[in-house]
Amino acid sequence: MLNDLVSDNIPALAPSDTGAKALQIMDDFRVSHLPVVSGTEYIGLVSDNDIYGISDDEPVSQCRLVAPQPYALDSQHIFEALTIMSQQKLSLLPVLSAKSKAYLGVITETQLLRGLAQATSADMQGGIIEIVTTPVNYSPAQVAAIVESNDMKIMSLFAKTTTAGMEVLLKLNGHDTSAVIQGLERYGYRIKSVFEGDGKYNDLMEERYGALMSYLNV
Length: 218
Description:
The chain contains 7 helices and 9 strands. It has helices at about 20-30, 50, 80-85, 110-120, 140-150, 180-185, 200-215, and strands spanning about 35-40, 40-45, 70-75, 90-95, 105-110, 130-135, 155-160, 165-170, 190-195. The longest helix is centred in the last third of the chain and has 19 residues, at about 200-215.
């Protein structure tokens, strides 16, 4: 759930705060959005472009707010927050209490990436195998059985359909992937690439994250 990722380090704006103050906070924290909050009531999100439309001494209540009003509830999954931030191109996302709808804080892009790393086991050591098959022949249960029959576990799995067929990325809990590769090949899975060092895996995860962002923006 998102409540583990919420930060209150970035200050929210009061409706009476000036445009100059808002831009200074954005510059200090290197964000392009800030929540507007009255007490614990979330009013909306304002962007730097909207603040440029008012004078420095005017209150942010005079700004147009980001629409549709973006926020997530603390009970939601990180993938839901990812979708909202990607679709609306946000530098941060306000989080509200699922029970009271009170403002709790924000999730920044950095916090989102850290949460995704934990959710997808990207921060754990292990080997990576990319396989290619057809949508008809692809069976997650079969792939898992092959991996586990070689005394390893799948820590995360990503699958996507491409012009080449079905591409599947496996993150395993160990570095020696040779036995798993042999098992996959016996069942007709073509090995596209293998990474046994975490540096290459981090590069690959950055590529996959970019692809996911592009997909969510379609």
